[in-house]
Amino acid sequence: MKKSDLKSRVAQATGVEHRIAGIIVDAVFDELRKGFIAGEKIEFRGFGTFSKRCTAPKVGRIIATGEP
Q1: pLDDT class for 10, splitting at 50, 70, 90?
Q2: d(CA 32, CA 36)
Q3: What angle do CA 23, 29, 34 make, to 5 degrees?
Q4: Using CA atoms, how far apart are residues 18 and 21, in angstroms rounded to an integer?
Q5: What backbone torsions phi and psi does residue 32 show, to the nearest 5 degrees?
Q6: Residue 44, SS3?
Q7: Are 7 and 25 in contact (CB under 8 A)?
Q8: How far apart are CA 26 and CA 49, in angstroms?
Q9: Angle (nearest 5°) at CA 13 between 36 and 40
Q10: Mean pLDDT of 32-61
């Protein structure tokens, strides 16, 4: 599903204009983005929990020679 599909579905489900639904969806994504930048954990009960996680870099290897 693309963002435009989500906007259309929100407009249809709520009965608001497509333009207004687009503003709402954009506002939700902006707030999610701000939360991720701030390092907050984002939780949607019944759907999932999202958080920023830092992991150590992995060393790639050349399969033929085994070199890093």
Answers
A1: very high
A2: 6
A3: 125
A4: 5
A5: -60, -45
A6: strand
A7: yes
A8: 20
A9: 10
A10: 91
